[in-house]
Each structure stands twice: as C-alpha cells, then as structure tokens.
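TICKET: design request
STATUS: open
ATTACHED STRUCTURE:
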C-alpha cells in the first residue's frame, strides 16, 4: 500500500496491513460505530489477492457490529467492486454474498476501482471501466490494496510475460507448479501465478505436489503430481456464523467435511475458524499436519 501510515487515521482501515494494521482497523470501525451514523465503503482491487474472502468478511463483520450497536439503520454500507458483475470469483459464493447483502441493505457498486483517497477530506475516488472517475464521501473505508509477488520475484525475470499474471506473479504451470521456462524452478504459495490458491490451506496441498515433482524432475521422470487449485476460506457471514468455502480449478466445490454443507452458513464453521484454525496453521508451519 502506498501510504500505510494512514491506516488507523481519518476513518481508513485495512486488514491487509498486518496484525497492527488489523487492530487499528478494528479501532476505526469502533469509532465509526460510535459516531451513531455514517457511510462505510469496502473496496476490492482488480488484482489477484490473498484470501479473496477477507474483503467480504470485513463487510460482514462490520455489519454485525453495527447490528449489535442497535443503530444499523443510521448507517450506509457500500461495497465497491472493480468488476462488472461480481464480488467473488466462484459463482455460488458470489451469489450467496450478493443476495445476503441485498437483504441486509448493503449496496454493491460495480465497476468501481479505488484509485485515490483524499484522507483529510475523507473522500475516495473510484474509476470505472471507461476511465470515468467517481468521488465518494466516507466516514470509514476498508482498503484492499492491489497485490503482486514481492519485488524480488517481480524483478527476477521469472514472472509471466503476458496474460493475467504478467509481470506480477511467478510463471509456473498451474498443475505441476514447475516454472514454464526454467524447469529447475518450482513455485509454491502466494507468489505463484496460478488462477486460484492464495490461501494457506492451498499451500498445504501444494507442498506434497511440489515435493513429488521436484523429486521426479531430479530423477528425470515425468511430473505426475498435480495441484487441483484447492482454495479454502471460512467466509464469516456474521459474528458467530460462517460458510466454509472450499473450491478448486473450474470453481468446483471441494468440501473436506461430510457433515458441513459447503454452501450453508453455520455456527460450527465459525467455531472452527475461531478456535481451530490458528493451531492448525501453527501445526502446518511446523510441518506437523
Ligand atoms: C487478511 C488475510 C486473511 C487471510 N485468511 C486466510 C484464511 O482464512 N485461510 C487461509 O488459508 N489463508 C488465509 N490468508 C492467506 C494466507 O495468509 C496466505 O495464503 C499464506 O500466508 C501464503 O503463504 P506464503 O508463504 O506463500 O506467503 P506469505 O505468508 O506472504 O510469506 C511470504 C514471506 O516472504 C517474505 N519476503 C518478501 N520479500 C522478501 C525478500 N525479498 N526476502 C526475504 N523475504 C521476503 C515476506 O515478508 C513474508 O514473510 C489470509 C491472508 C490475509 C492477508
């Protein structure tokens, strides 16, 4: 983000700015609610992004906090998406979210890419697909920055040369994770220029694919292990409820648990997100799961 120091000031928040930024974002939401009325904007970039559910979760949790305050009706919440017809790539989850927001009085504005903020004036500028600029006043804005692989990767000559990942993400095959021009290079995690998979849950499934394919490459064998695009996000729909979104390439749903409907919200998924994910991720980092 160009000016991260603004997070936590003038109604600006971003959960993408690390733990401290998330804390400051929460404080800005508290201040927004304490005003008793106002307008909140929630943005989405045009780029691929880490956990594409997070911008939606921020909207849902703010809504929940507003409802709990008893003053929901005094607030105007608007979601600004740069895309012409979606807020999320997987249609079943997109439709769920858009329909729920329609019931909850959250306005979705399409073709609105955040291009500038005048923090002192609390005004945000959005551009549509034709380049027209729209100014919006706000009391709180949740900013999701455009994302790319880190500069060391972007400037390495290893990124895609064309297509949707061009110059920003590592040029690997979406199935084998092998670099498309340099066969002795493989990619894993968020840097990979593949259509899905920017979640920690994806990395867990990519790791064994990568290991198997590197071993095959070193022994001159065919690369047979394939990453299926598995992406997982406990999509919080309210404080106390969530949908366990799990999907892969082709937007195929990939539920892990027979007892959880991947399209229904439930308190069980919320408990899973609240209590189990952090230990699971920590165990994953230690190679225990
Ligand atoms: C707000 C948010 C919510 C999320 N929610 C979920 C979720 O619910 N479930 C889920 O599975 N995933 C979630 N994710 C995604 C998950 O965090 C990432 O997919 C995961 O961390 C990817 O791991 P990674 O190692 O590829 O990248 P990172 O975790 O980004 O690690 C890359 C590391 O490389 C370091 N680095 C960068 N440049 C250099 C350099 N030049 N030299 C040395 N080091 C460098 C960075 O500092 C960083 O530590 C979320 C992410 C965010 C931001």
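STATUS: resolved
RESOLUTION: sequence designed for all positions
ATTACHED SEQUENCE:
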């Amino acid at each position: 983000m160009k000016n991260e120091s603004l997070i936590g000031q003038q109604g600006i928040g971003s959960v993408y700015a690390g733990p401290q930024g998330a804390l400051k974002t929460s404080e800005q939401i508290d201040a927004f609610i304490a005003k008793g009325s106002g307008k909140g904007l929630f943005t989405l970039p045009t780029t691929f992004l880490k956990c594409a559910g997070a911008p939606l979760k921020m909207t849902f949790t703010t809504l929940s906090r507003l409802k709990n305050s008893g003053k929901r009706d005094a607030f105007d919440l608007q979601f600004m998406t740069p895309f012409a017809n979606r807020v999320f790539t997987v249609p079943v989850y997109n439709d769920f979210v858009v329909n729920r927001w329609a019931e909850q009085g959250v306005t979705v504005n399409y073709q609105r890419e955040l291009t500038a903020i005048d923090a002192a004036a609390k005004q945000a500028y959005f551009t549509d697909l034709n380049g027209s600029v729209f100014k919006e006043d706000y009391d709180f804005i949740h900013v999701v920055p455009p994302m790319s692989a880190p500069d060391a990767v972007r400037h390495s000559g290893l990124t895609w040369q064309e297509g949707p990942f061009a110059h920003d993400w590592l040029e690997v095959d979406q199935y084998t994770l092998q670099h498309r021009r340099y066969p002795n290079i493989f990619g894993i995690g968020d840097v990979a220029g593949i259509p899905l998979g920017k979640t920690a849950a994806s990395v867990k499934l990519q790791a064994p694919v990568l290991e198997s394919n590197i071993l095959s490459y070193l022994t001159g064998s065919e690369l047979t292990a394939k990453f299926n695009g598995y992406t997982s996000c406990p999509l919080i729909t309210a404080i106390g409820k969530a949908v366990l979104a799990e999907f892969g390439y082709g937007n195929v749903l990939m539920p892990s648990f027979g007892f959880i409907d991947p399209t229904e919200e439930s308190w069980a998924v919320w408990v899973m997100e609240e209590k189990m994910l952090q230990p699971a991720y920590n165990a994953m980092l230690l190679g225990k799961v």
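CLOSING REMARK: Helices lie at 18-34, 54-69, 91-104, 151-154, 200-218, 267-285. Residues 16 and 80 are 17 Å apart (CA to CA).
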